[in-house]
Amino acid sequence: MSQCIRILPETLTNKIAAGEVVERPASVIKELIENSLDAGATDVVVEITAGGRRRICIIDNGRGMSREDALLSLERHATSKIRTDCDLDKITTLGFRGEALPSIASVSRFTLATREAAFPEGVEIIVEGGRVRDVRACGMPPGTAISVEHIFFNLPARLKFLKSAETEAGHAADVIARMAVSRPDVAFSCVSDERELIKLQRSDLQHRLAQVVGRDSSRYMYSVRSVTDNVTISGFISGPSLVRSGTQGIYTYINGRFIRDKVVQHAVMQAYRGVIDRGRYPVLALFIELPPGEVDVNVHPTKHEVRFRRQTPVHDAIQSALEGVLRSSPWLTSQPPAQTAVVATGHALRERIAAAAQASLALPHRARNFTGSLQDAGPTEIVPHPVQEYAAIVSEPTPPFQQEPVQHVSSGFFSSLALIGQFHSEYILCQSDTDLVIIDQHAASERVAYQLLKEQSIAGGIESQCLLFSETVELSFSEVAAATRFSADLAAIGFELEPFGGTTLMVSAVPRLAADSEPLLLLRDILADLEHLGTTAAFSDVLENLLSRIACHAVIRGTHALERRQIRELLESMDRTDFAASCPHGRPVSHTITLAELQKIFKRT
Ligand code: ADP
Ligand code: MG
């Protein structure tokens, strides 16, 4: 086993994608775990302090290294995994570049301790900023333990870019989770500042996935397996009731390596077209196996990107494997809506605005049919038309009404408008003297809700509504980190959350305005926004965005036939709103066409 590491010849190193792999603690952890797995480890222990900024330690029970190899492994382009140019075309290991250990050792205080099982003792090498300081014999069990302290101590510019310890710990946990999904036969654990973050026993993919995405979530996942020519696809994919606002639940692997690839992602999203809403992403763990010569992993130093020799067959194989499951699975179970009980009370005016924004405008609970198209289930819906049938429908609010007198008994501009009708179940048409006023009902109700939320926020907190039965939500490690970090802020915007073991949170209350429109989906969206924030102080920077997200979530989306009473309530609440003439997204809320403009169009002038 000794001397199996060699320095690659320059002709070969020139062919290896150049670049830096050490970006943050999580990238160090990724490289070191890859090495452990390549060394045949069945047990990988990760310990981090201060999110890995102060210390990262990875201990494995792999085959270890001899003293000579251990010293060689710290040289650039020293690897035991490839020898010649031809090997580049048939890589079966996770590493092959021979650059991780020297790169990491050059930017940290680095200790490598390693022992081969056949030897009674191991060797410990201490390196500081790339210089070997000490080499000595050490007692240790067979395997390798690498400790990386004070990463970037000699590169202050890089250090500055690291995020808070919690954020870095979240990234680290996500990296471990990705690798853990690819190797259920290996036990993984991670302790962060003496708190156990991850503990995964050896098991099979199904159990591993349940541990990583959560048991509740995994109940909505379906097995996929297809073998075509050169491509084998296997894994588990979610049905339409398990979605995320981003790609964080998409675990894709090529020949066991976690990758983020546009071709693969495109194939996945094509398969889900019509099954899930736009802007939503599935949860899945998909393993794509190809002959090593069919895929080039030597594209980017982090090896997250790949290039397929023949892209189209791979794309089509993935798409049709997924479609095979998505087209046939009999899930059709729409998630029961959260049951709610109102406990909040508040200022009378706010109550009224809330009632208007909520009772008349909130989207009814939606049930998804098999093709994933949305059906409104609310009592005010007349007929759910497919989108293309909507063209040029001017519907009258039900019941049909006579032209109202122009003067409505009211003080505000919007309440004084005479209602003409609703166009396309999306726009409200009104008359004001000689003007035609067109109101975008979604933008208007969003603006009303946003205003209300802002007022509540300034007055001390968003009104929340207790769930009759608390719900649990399964999150990724970094989402949990965000939820923990911002728990007080989340409470201030209406979410009452408590840890419920592992990566599960118990949700006992949600913002009242959004209580009827899939509040857990809203929570996930908000956590996805917060994941990228470093410190609690930064929460105030995104508060407005979050309020507008809640407002947008709480109100009517798409087409929705309104009763006259509902339109009146909306117009009245618009008058109570400090109206900047746009919705929180900056879209206009109303548009006026004067009689003169109309006459010009009809060439009457
Ligand atoms: P690469 O993984 O691309 O070969 P690295 O710099 O990551 O390059 O590692 C250099 C070499 O050190 C590896 O090829 C391997 O032989 C050895 N090595 C690294 N980590 C371990 C480990 N945990 N157990 C056994 N050998 C290891
Ligand atoms: Mg490596």
Write down the overall geometry: elongated
| Largest pleated sheet | 8 strands, mixed
The rounded distance between the terminal residues' Cα atoms is 95 Å
Which strand order spans the largest sheet, edge to edge or round the barrel?
7-6-5-8-3-2-9-10
Low-confidence stretches: 333-409
Q: Give the names of the bound compounds.
A: adenosine-5'-diphosphate, magnesium ion
Proper CATH architecture of the largest domain:
2-Layer Sandwich
Notes on the protein architecture:
With 605 residues, the chain is α+β, with helices and mostly antiparallel strands. The protein folds into three domains: 10-202, Heat Shock Protein 90, CATH 3.30.565; 207-328, 2-Layer Sandwich (Ribosomal Protein S5, domain 2), CATH 3.30.230.10; 418-590, MutL, C-terminal domain, regulatory subdomain (Ribosomal Protein S8, Chain: A, domain 1, 2-Layer Sandwich), CATH 3.30.1370. It starts with 5 loop residues before the first strand and ends with a helix. It binds adenosine-5'-diphosphate (ADP) and magnesium ion. Adenosine-5'-diphosphate (ADP) binds at residues 5, 31, 35-36, 39, 60, 62-65, 73, 78-81, 95-101, 144.
